[in-house]
Specification:
The complex is a heterodimer of chains A (150) and B (572). Chain A is mainly alpha-helical. Chain A has 5 helices and no strands. Chain A has helices at residues 24-29, 46-75, 77-80, 91-121, 140-145. The chains are: A mainly alpha (150), B mainly alpha (572).
Chain lengths: 150, 572
């Protein structure tokens, strides 16, 4: 959707095709995040709404993958302990030991790709470090955190 | 704080009692004794780590703690994997599955799937906050040195409890490779544990996080290589599997004793859920895991490296149950029945990975290679833990609270001294560990889940969480964590033994009760007290802005700029 192919994330003029009213992307551009309330249950901007939808649906799926098999085994032990033909695994064992970790990995890939897409939609580009150089952070701990008074 | 000091004191008091017992910790069936080739492998490997440590030797605090924020995607993923895969994963995981069947799988699930929660809720936001350590986050987010101190003490405690399991692993595996060196007054296990802990500390105090990050990649390659080659060759030689033992062991499961696969033979449904819950949210609260996200250049890298990390972790976690199945079958056939009385001992379980390769008749050098992987895992994790623990002391307590004018030199010195202190404490308490590796590590996870995770989560996702809320929540959390620990006697020789508590709030799964309690206390206290200052809220908001941030900037810097270069929130 965005026609963002240049490396100028700061360019305010760049717009996307809209359908009459202002698009999410346009509204997003006018927002200063330092003025938006942060509350997981009340996303304040179009970007956060999109992102939260992904986060919360991912989390719900995750909960099913993680706690679903053992709960099902508790409720219906007969069905869940059957041997899977071919593999030889008891069903509950397979769902817990293989599908659990594997599912979380697939969900993670799904999430990062989804999040990359959202970034793309809103024209967000991460800053890449220039070539590795001597990092000039030698005094940072003291500068950012020092001098705390109580 | 007094309560905590008391705990530490009573812990030290208990050691002297523990030291009097002189039971030998010898795994039955394991062929103990000096083996030249495995010894060379281990010595060469440790030499390599030390060389890398010396090569990347640092004296600068920024390099020491966050590797100059210069680490990339896959490299960081491997470091996450290596940092994560401790002796508890390499050895303890298969041990638990072998000893307690399906209940042991709660550890496989807990220690992998937690990364997804970390990824969606914390990784990138933490990166944007831009602090050096977990206690730094807590201290700056809640504008409180008391909160910073509680977080730092918790971090130190986690490092310590966690390292106990690693030391036990080093001792047991070292015993297989080098035998009993015959140091007077020490058993073989004790001598080996001390030797390897000393090497780890020496290596760590030479290098810092930069050395550790580079070395961790090396350690990951060695440990995953050893683990995968071991399971592949064991499965092949013993005739269990061909090319994919991670799936082929399925056919073996129902041939083992029912203890191995009966869903609730090793622990109740409640215990399973409680354990997995604690491990998952503990993962999200572990300081030495979170600090890996500070080492990357931007949030996208933080997210992708988290996913890569989970991939690298899954390689091992999908293989560990196969090891457990092979090991249990081989042990039952060649040593004695794995279940019943006496059954497999905890010590044998803790080296089942090495034991399996040995019982399958693999050549000694290959068994030694697998054993070396276990040592690499333990060393890598102790490195990460001790860095997190020592920076909590030197950076968060010493430089921020005790001596705000500390020079870099002083900070690094205090950091090194606290590494040595952690090492000595760990050695003392590991002389006669009462619990298997994974259980010891599990306690550290409960602590991280209960005390730190709610602070990270609420701190990043609800801007109205305030200082009194955090202080009330964290103190409640510490108490909630300590109750089952005392009840089950993990800190003292005479447990309280309240049965109801043991059933519903087991130490290993106390997060299931503790996390919601701490959330409730933090939210309730935050609601009835004044909202946090605007600058603090803005800092939280900055963590959620999609606007890219330069890698050397923190959320506090951005807020200070917005407010005309005024004081940062930590200063009010």
């Amino acid at each position: 959707m965005p026609d963002n192919t240049t490396h100028e994330p700061e360019n305010e003029e760049r717009t996307v095709a809209t359908d009459g009213g202002r698009s999410d992307v346009e509204r997003e551009k006018e927002i200063d995040y330092l003025d938006v309330e942060i509350n997981l249950l009340k996303p304040g901007t179009p970007f956060m709404r999109d992102h939260n939808r992904v986060i919360l649906s991912g989390f719900a799926l995750w909960a099913v993958i993680v706690f679903g098999p053992i709960t099902a085994t508790r409720l219906a032990p007969g069905v869940m302990t059957q041997t899977i033909p071919g593999l030889g695994f008891p069903l509950h064992y397979f769902l817990i030991a293989i599908v659990g970790p594997g599912g979380a990995l697939l969900l993670s890939v799904w999430y990062v790709r989804k999040r990359d897409k959202i970034d793309e939609k809103y024209g967000i580009e991460q800053i890449q470090a220039p070539e590795t150089t001597q990092t000039d952070t030698s005094s940072e701990p003291a500068a950012t955190d020092g001098g705390v008074d109580r | 704080m007094n309560g905590l000091a008391f705990t530490v004191l009573s812990l030290i008091g208990d050691t002297s009692i523990l030291l009097q017992g002189d039971e030998e910790l010898l795994p039955e069936g394991l062929n103990i004794g000096f083996k030249p080739i495995p010894a060379i492998i281990v010595i060469a490997m440790m030499g390599l780590f030390l060389a890398a440590g010396v090569f990347y030797k640092v004296a600068d605090t920024s390099d020491m703690w966050v590797a100059g924020r210069s680490i990339g995607n896959i490299e960081n993923g491997m470091a996450i994997g290596s940092n994560w895969m401790s002796a508890a994963s390499y050895l303890g995981m298969a041990a638990l599955i072998a000893l307690s069947g399906v209940y042991g799988l709660a550890f496989v699930v807990g220690w992998t799937t937690g990364y997804f929660v970390l990824l969606i809720f914390l990784a990138a936001q933490m990166r944007r906050f831009g602090k050096y350590t977990a206690p730094d986050f807590v201290g700056d987010r809640f504008n409180s040195d008391a909160a910073r101190a509680i977080a730092a003490v918790t971090t130190f405690l986690i490092g310590f409890v966690y390292a106990l399991g690693q030391a036990r692993g080093m001792g047991l595996v070292g015993l297989y490779i080098l035998g009993d060196p015959g140091i007077p007054g020490l058993s073989g296990y004790q001598a080996m544990m001390i030797i390897f802990m000393v090497i780890t500390i020496a290596y760590l105090s030479l290098s810092g996080m930069l050395g550790a990050t580079k070395t961790m990649v090396l350690q990951y390659v060695i440990l995953i290589g050893a683990f995968l080659i071991g399971v592949l060759v064991t499965g092949w030689t013993a005739g269990y599997s061909t090319f994919l033992p991670q799936l082929e062991y399925g056919a073996l499961i129902t041939e083992l004793s029912s203890e191995f696969y009966d869903p609730f033979a090793g622990g109740s449904y409640y215990l399973w859920v409680a354990t997995a819950f604690s491990l998952i949210f503990g993962t999200c609260g572990l300081p030495h895991v979170l600090v890996r996200f500070y080492t990357v250049e931007n949030e996208r890298t933080a997210r992708w490296s988290c996913t890569w990390g989970l991939f690298f972790i899954c390689l091992l976690y999908l293989s560990a149950p196969a090891y457990a199945a092979f090991g249990t079958d081989l042990y039952s056939n060649e040593v004695r029945p794995a279940y019943g009385d006496p059954g497999m001992s905890g010590e044998a379980g803790d080296v089942i990975v090495v034991l399996a390769t040995q019982l399958a008749g693999l050549p000694t050098w290959l068994v030694g290679f697998v054993a070396a992987g276990g040592i690499a895992a333990a060393v890598a994790t102790v490195a990460g833990l001790f860095i997190a623990g020592s920076s909590a002391i030197s950076h968060d307590i010493y430089a921020n609270i005790i001596n705000p004018d500390a020079t870099q030199r002083q900070q690094v010195l205090v950091g090194r001294l606290s590494i040595v202190a952690l090492g000595v404490l760990t050695i003392l308490f590991s002389l006669n560990p009462a619990q298997p590796i994974a259980a010891l590590v599990g306690f550290a996870f409960s602590l991280a889940a209960i005390v730190l995770f709610p602070m990270f989560f609420l701190g990043l996702w609800w801007e109205n969480t305030n200082r009194p809320g955090a202080l009330a929540g964290m103190s409640t959390g510490l108490i909630v964590w300590l109750i089952p620990m005392f009840n089950e006697g993990h800190f003292q020789t005479t447990p309280w033994g309240i049965g109801f508590l043991e059933t519903w709030m087991p130490a290993i799964g106390s997060g299931l009760i503790g996390v919601p309690v701490v959330f409730a206390v933090t939210i309730a206290v935050s609601l009835v007290t004044a909202e946090p200052p605007l600058e603090t809220k803005q800092m939280v908001r900055q963590c959620h802005s999609p606007e890219p941030m330069p890698k050397d900037k923190t959320a506090a810097d951005v807020v200070a700029e917005k407010n005309g270069g005024g004081p940062t929130p930590a200063d009010d």
